[in-house]
Amino acid sequence: MSTTIHNYPFNPCCFEDLPDEILLSICSYLSQVNILDSLLNLNKRLNKTIISYRERIFLSHLSYKDFYHLMNDYLPHLSPNVHYLYINNCGMLNTGKIFEQKFDKIDRQFPLLRELVFNQIDIETLENLSWRFNTMNCLSQLNIDIADNRISTLPVQFDEFLCGKLFSVSNSFQSLILNLNQTRFSLQSINHKCLNIRHLTISVKCLNDLLIIFDNFSNIEQLNITIGCNSLSNNDTYSYEQLWWKIPSLTKFNLSIKEKELTSHDNVISSEIIMKIIQNIYQLVHVKFTLDITFQFDPQFDITKDIYKNKYFPYANGSLWEQALQRNDNRSIHFELYIEINGLPSPLSRRVSNSAMFQVDKTNDVSLNSLLATTYSSSYWLQKNITIQCFSITSQHVSIYTLPITDSSLSTTTDMIEQIITATTPPSYLYIKNLSLDSSIDYYYSSKLLITKLFTRFPYLTYLKINGQLLLPSSISTCSNHLRSLSLSNYSFSSCCELLNYLPKVISLTLPNLDDTIISKNTRMKPILSITRLKLTTSLCSVINLIHLSEYFPNVKEFYMTITNKLNQHLRNSDECEEVKYVLQRFKYLRFVEVILPIKQTADLVLNWIRMLDTNETICENNAASGFIIVKTWLKN
Q: Do 549 and 502 belong together in one domain?
């Protein structure tokens, strides 16, 4: 018996022989800097394969070394062909300023730039770069998000300045997204036509700002606008019947009315005006209306059954919406409604006040479900297949929305979410990615949610903020592979670590009340390796209790700490600075630090603190009025 051995020639596979799909899959595990270091200019084929990494630049969450490497070694050569640029000041120090200093002629240095995104940008950098907006001829989309800690320092005439730069007739961009967070924008200085803007997202102060858009943005196609309720917001003299020819191209309209502390019911735009606006914008194909208001806590603030029925029920009245949405050509208009009215005060307000004040007589309550059911029973709504969902904790807290929910965010209370989860005909919540839950009563007495039920109903949550407690199963199991950011109020540290065992993909953790919490060394608790961004708030006397924090979160790269000044405590000497420094030094992989310190105007103490950080990239912002300083440090290693 003989055997024959066949020798086949061996052809080794080279890296270049891999298909583009495999190469791009490998690239997905690398940073942009790593990809450019490894593959840029090796050959024409690889240059073409990584074209998205050459033409789309992200200055975001980079290490000190990688940021300057990208800025100095690559960007000057890549900039002539860059189409997309993202500049993020969050998690990096002075990103915008450093960029603006090196690329002060952005219109010439990035001639083909089509989309420019500023995230958490500082005012000075935005003002300097905005002078170039009107000569950036290829720019079609501009997104501006102003840093939270800069909102309070906005110049008095900032609205007027920005209007002149963003709504100039010489600008080429067609899409503008302007996010001032809780600050409302005034458009009163606009007195000319803005024909270039097609898509606009903006928050404004009052109804008159919306009317200015109607009068001057005749080519607007998509409008996402949020209107505040700080002042009287009704204009009965405006010619709403002319809207059909003033804005003939507007097809998608998202209108939100939001106010966190409503002081007067008259400040809310009347439902009659809203219906007039919708009825007279003839070309609409998509309408979304949001009413999200919280009443200011004041015993004198009038909240009665009649006010709910006469003032706020019409915003949800299906018969009124049917009249506003109907068109002569029987065109179907996509419609979404979301109403959140919170007449319940915060737990803190309730504890310091007469609790009997907040009791509601059930026999005198408003039956919103029965009122709504009749208004959505016509053939018009049956053909549109729209269902209205209504939940309420008495009439003082009401949630009303159309189903299915397509919004990505939901903010409600723990009691309300209990009703949603236990509903007999549960709607689809697949689109909800951001969920914020507050306790409608004192968190100690609030109901506790079972974590498995929460994520069964909201399977694709990426952000969860909760003031309350979650019940955990007896055995550890993964409850979500999608959640990335978690904020926990009124949670013990041990309970927080226990909860994270069920949420293995969370990378950002916020703990807003660690006062009087002693974090001891516990060998039984495993370290949480997934957390790379940690935000916490504690008191000055409790800082020393955090020395073992790094043992539970060893992989933290970004650390944000706010030290409160309860009992009027301020940082007084270098020893207290040393305590903060000692906590920070124990994080091995730390890359960025932001610490808010209660400190008086003591120059020597501030200088000593900055020297302790031992880095070349540190800024210190002193807010004398509030008695705090903000120290930001970008570590080189």
A: no
